[in-house]
Amino acid sequence: MICLDANYLIGGVIETRPESRHLLAWAEAGETFCTAAPAWYEFLCGPVSPPQVHTMLAFLTEGIIAFEETQAQTAARLFNAVQRSRRLRVDAIIAATAITQRARFATLKHRRIQVLRTARAGVGHSSRNLTDQLSVELVSYRDAG
User: Fold this and answer.
1) What is the pLDDT of residues 28-84, one digit of tens each?
2) Do residues 9 and 43 make contact, with C-beta atoms less than 8 angstroms apart?
3) pLDDT range class, residue 111, cuts 50, 70, 90
4) What is the 3-state secondary structure (H, E, C) of 79-102?
């Protein structure tokens, strides 16, 4: 399963974007997709048409994952691991969804995600485990088939 960031949702419904080609190739290879509720919100803020929303919903065979207690705890640990950088708050929420779903994470925010992946704050061993999980599970658009 691949968890899609908002930028993959947006690019995925634009035929000329690489994200669209990646989604098609991954789907043809048997991948399934989900997204975090905050990423879905960003996508719906648009501009996006009803047919584009319908198309993306069809790709999200694993659904839109609610932001619940498990995701909140994981996101808070990631956020604290990067010294509470406000610009990474939503990124931590969406990345936490990928981690809690044990999904790979497709995003174009490589620099921001790299910060989350390499975070080594003094908040204990569990934060290192989280960032290591994200490191292993990150799907780069450069890796796409």
Assistant:
1) 999 999 999 999 999 999 899 999 999 999 999 999 999 999 889 888 888 887 777
2) yes
3) low
4) HHHCCCCHHHHHHHHHHHHHHHCC
Give the H or E element holding residue 3.
strand 2-4
For residue 24, count CB atoms less than 10 angstroms from its CB and return exposed for 0-12, middle for 13-18, buried for 19 or more: middle
User: What is the rounded CA–CA span in Å between residue 9 and residue 20?
Assistant: 9
Q: How many degrees, rounded to 5, is the angle at CA 12 between CA 64 and CA 41? A: 40
Give the start-end residues of each E strand in the chain: 2-4, 33-36, 64-65, 104-107, 138-140
> Angle at the Cα of 71 (from 66 to 27), degrees rounded to 5?
60
Burial (CB count within 10 angstroms: exposed 0-12, middle 13-18, buried 19+), residue 122: exposed
- 27 or 113, which is more confident? 27
Task: Please give the biggest Cα pair distance in the chain.
Answer: 46
> pLDDT confidence of 121, banded at 50, 70, 90?
very low
Q: For residue 136, what are the contacts with CB-CB under 8 A and spacing of at least 6?
A: none
Q: State both tokens at 72.
A: 């909140």
